[in-house]
Amino acid sequence: MIQPIDPSDLNYDKLMEIVKKIPILQSAVSIINWDMETKMPPKGITLRSNQLALLSGIEHKMTTNPIIGNLLEKIENHPNFVTFDSIRKRNIYLIRKNYNEQTKLPENLVVETERQRAITIGVWKKAKTLNKFSLFKPELEKLVELKKRAAEFLMDVKGVHKPYDALIDIFEPGVTSAIISNVFNNLKRGLIPILNKCLSSSKQPDISILRRKIPIEIQRRISILITKFFGYDVTSEKAGGRIDETEHPFTTGYYDDVRITTHYYADNFSSSLFSILHEVGHALYEQNLPPKWIYQPIGESCSLGFHEFQSRLVENIIGRSTEFWTYFYPTLKEMTKDKFSHVKLNDFVHAINLVQPSKIRIEADEITYCLHIIIRFEIEQDLIAGRIEVEELPDIWNQKYATYLGVKIENNSEGVMQDTHWASAIYGYFPTYALGNIYSGQIISTMEKEVPLWRTEISEGNFQNIKQWLINNVHKYGNLYNPQDLLKKITGEGINIGPYLNYLDAKYSQLYDY
Amino acid sequence: MIQPIDPSDLNYDKLMEIVKKIPILQSAVSIINWDMETKMPPKGITLRSNQLALLSGIEHKMTTNPIIGNLLEKIENHPNFVTFDSIRKRNIYLIRKNYNEQTKLPENLVVETERQRAITIGVWKKAKTLNKFSLFKPELEKLVELKKRAAEFLMDVKGVHKPYDALIDIFEPGVTSAIISNVFNNLKRGLIPILNKCLSSSKQPDISILRRKIPIEIQRRISILITKFFGYDVTSEKAGGRIDETEHPFTTGYYDDVRITTHYYADNFSSSLFSILHEVGHALYEQNLPPKWIYQPIGESCSLGFHEFQSRLVENIIGRSTEFWTYFYPTLKEMTKDKFSHVKLNDFVHAINLVQPSKIRIEADEITYCLHIIIRFEIEQDLIAGRIEVEELPDIWNQKYATYLGVKIENNSEGVMQDTHWASAIYGYFPTYALGNIYSGQIISTMEKEVPLWRTEISEGNFQNIKQWLINNVHKYGNLYNPQDLLKKITGEGINIGPYLNYLDAKYSQLYDY
Q1: Exposure winner among A213, A284, B176, B328, fewest CB in 10 A?
Q2: What is the DSSP string of B4-45?
Q3: How many domains does one find in chain A?
Q4: Is A279 tagged catalytic?
Q5: Are B403 and B447 in the same domain?
C-alpha cells in the first residue's frame, strides 16, 4: 500500500528549501566581513559598508518572507504535526523563533545598523592606533543607539523584560542577565581566594622567557604545527581552513570553509600561540557539525557559550597544560633553535600560566580572565539600560579595572578600546566567554569518566579520542537543543561553577605550591 | 517662481535609487569571486558554488524587478523625456538595455550557469595541474551548453543574428563577429610580414638573461615599485588596491577597491613583471572612473576593448619600451643585485621584446599575440555555433597552433587549458584583447599630438601627463558612449588597424634592424 502523502510533510520540505538560502547567504556575507577585516584596501570602507547594508537588507527580506510565515502556520496547525520527529520539530521551532524575531525588526533599522557597524569598525581601528577615544565616540554612540532600538523591538517576542536580555538571548538562548549576575557573583567569590593564594605564593615563574624574540616567520610555522595537532587543516589540498593576520583574532565560516586569524608579535610569541589555540577550538566545532544537517537551522552550533567552552578548552585546559607541552615543547625548542634550550618544561608551563592582574582580556590568565568578563558584563548591562552613556565608558572602564583588578589603565587603546566587540555591534556576547569556561569545567569532568586517560593521551600527541568524544557528545547535536538543555543532557545538571573552580584550584595549587 | 516638479524627473530619481543597488551587489559578488580565486580553502568549493548561484539569482531578480520596467516606461513615454540631458538619457538607455536583456534570461538558467561556473573553475584548476583534459571536459560541456542557451535567448533583444554575436556584445557592445573577422583578416595580413622580418633578422636577442633566478620576495618588491610608478597604490594607509597571487592573473573591483593578481616564478621573473603591468593598466581605468557617477550605469567602464587598450598600453607600449626601462632599469639592477650588472639596457629591452611564436598567450610578444587571439576567436565562434564539440577542442587547438604559429603543443595544460576564460564562462571576450591593441595604436597616436613628449617623460619617470590625458579623454566618460562612438570621439575615426601596425613596424624595425 502506498503511504498517503502528508501535506504537513510537503510543506515542511517546501519550507526547508526556502530557509536553506539563509545560511548560504549568511556564509557569503561572512566572507565579505572576513575580507573587510583581513584583506580589504583601506579606501574600500565606504563601498563595503554599502555592500554590507544592502546584503543585510536582502537577508532581512529573506528571513521575513511572508511565505515562511504561511508555511509555518500550515505545518504547525496540521493535525499530523505532533507526529513529527524531534529533528523536524526543532527545525520548525528555530525557523519560527527567527521569523517572529526578524519580523519585529524594521528593515531600515537592520540596514542602518549594518552600515553603521562597518563604519564603526573602520573608525575603531584608526582610533585604537591613534589612542583617540574621541574619534571613536560619535560612531559608537550611533551604533549603541541602533542596538538599543533593536533590543527594545526584540524584548517582547523573546519574552524577556530587559533590553539587554534580548541581546544575550541572541548568543545564549534562554540565559538572562539575572542568571548571569548570580553565577558571576559566586564565580567571583570562588576566584578571589585562588587569585590571592597565587599572588602571595613565594613560587613565582620567570616570565621574561616569554619575551624572547621569535621571528614571525617561525611563529607562523609553529601556528601551522598547532593546527595540525588538533586536525584543523590549513595546508593540504583538501584543507577547509586558513590562517590570516588581524589585530583582533577571530574565527568565521561554515562547515567546509572555516577560517581563523591571529596576530604575531616578535617579542610576545605566546600571544599568537594562545590566540591560535583559542580559535582552533572554535574552528573544530564549526567544521565538525553534522554534514547531513548543512543548510538546516539545526546544523548550526548550539550557542556562543558552547563555542567558548571549546575555544577555552583548547586554549587553556589543553593548551596551557603540562601534558600538551610534554608533547609539544620539544617541537617548540627545535623550531626556535636556542631560545628555550635551558628552560625546563615545568618552568615554561608555569610561565605561560602566570597569574597576574593585567589590562588585556585576551592575554589574561585563567584566574583573572573572568574578572575581565565581569567588568564588560556590568558595563554592557548599564549601557544598554541607558544608565551610562558612551562618553562615560573610558572613566567607568578605568575605575572598574582599578577596583576589580587593581590595574591602572594608562590609555584607552589598552583600555575600553581593546576589544572589537562593541565596534562590531556585538553586545551581550561577552558573558558567553565566562559561561564557556564554566561549561568547560562541567563537560570535561563528564568526559573524564569516558576518556579517563585523556591527559596521558595529550602528552603522547593524541587528540583523537577527545575530538571523537566532543563530536559524539557536542558537535553531532548541532543546534538540536538549547544550551541549558544540551548542558543537562551532557552533564546531567544546569550551570554549576563547582567543577571549573575545582579544576582551577587543582591546577594552580600545584603550579604555585599553595 | 518655483519650478514645477517634473514627474519624469521624480521617476528618474526613484529609478536611480533602485538600480544603484545593482553595482553594489555586483561589487560584493566580485569580492566573493576574488576570494574563490585567491584565498578560499579548497574544500569550500561546493559551498561557494551555492553562494554564487544564490547571489546570481538575487542579482537577476534585482535587475528584472518589474518596478524598473514600469518606471522606465513612465520616463520614456513622458513628453519631457526629450529635454533630458545626455547623461540621464544614457543612464536610461543602459538601464533599458540591461532590463530588456536580463528579462529574456530565465532565472534558473542564470543560477545554474553561476553554480556550474564555480564548479568548472575548480575542476579546471585541478585538470590543468594534472594535465587531464578528460577531467575538465564533462564540466566544460555543461557550461558551454548553458552559455549557448543564454546566447540564444539574447540574440533577438540584442538585434544580432548569431548566438556568438550576442556574447561578444556583452563585452564590446555594437561589435559583431563579422566586423571582427574582417579586422582580424587584415590584421593577420599586416602582422605576418613583420613577424617574418623579425624571425629572419640576423640580430636576435639573448633571452637567457630572462631565466636568471630572481627570488620571489624580490619580485614581490619589484611589483610594488611598478605599481607606484603608475600611481596604483597598494601599500599606503589610503590604498585602494592590493596584489595577490593566482595561477591566472586578473583584475577585479570597483572604484575604491580594485585588486590585481599575478604569479611569480623564480626562473621567469618577466612573467610577473608584465602581468603586473597589464593588470595595473586595467586597475587604473577602474580607479579613475568619475567618482560622481559611482553606482550609476554610466559610472562603469566603456567596454572590455577599452579596458584591454589600457592594459596593453601599460604592459607593452609603455612597459616594453626603451623609455620605461631607461628609467626603471637602474632600479631593477639594484633590486636584483648582480643579476643584470653586465647586461646593457638595449640588450635587456630587446630580450623582453623577443619575437617568437610560442604556446602561452599571456607570455606572447606583441607581434604573435594577436595570432593567439585569432585562434581563440575562431574556436569560440565554431563552438558557440555548434560546429565543433568540447571534446574536439584539444585537437583543433593543437592544429591551429601548428598552422598559425608553427608551434607543437605537447600537452593540454599549456594548450587548450592554459586560459581561465572558458572555465569561467567567459565567451566572446578574447577578441577584445586584439581590439584593445588596435584601439591603443589609434588612441596613442591621438594622444601624441597633445602630449608630444610622453616618451621622454616616461624615461624621466613621469607618468603624470599620460595619466591625466587618459583621465580627460577616456576615464572621465565612463560608460557615456558605446565603444565605437568613444573611439570616434577620441580619434575621429572607426576601427583602424593602421596606427597599431605602424607602431609595431616602427618599434620592431629598430629592435631587429630590418
Answers
A1: A213
A2: PP-HHHHHHHHHHHHHTHHHHHHHHHHHHHHHHHHT--GGGH
A3: 2
A4: yes
A5: yes
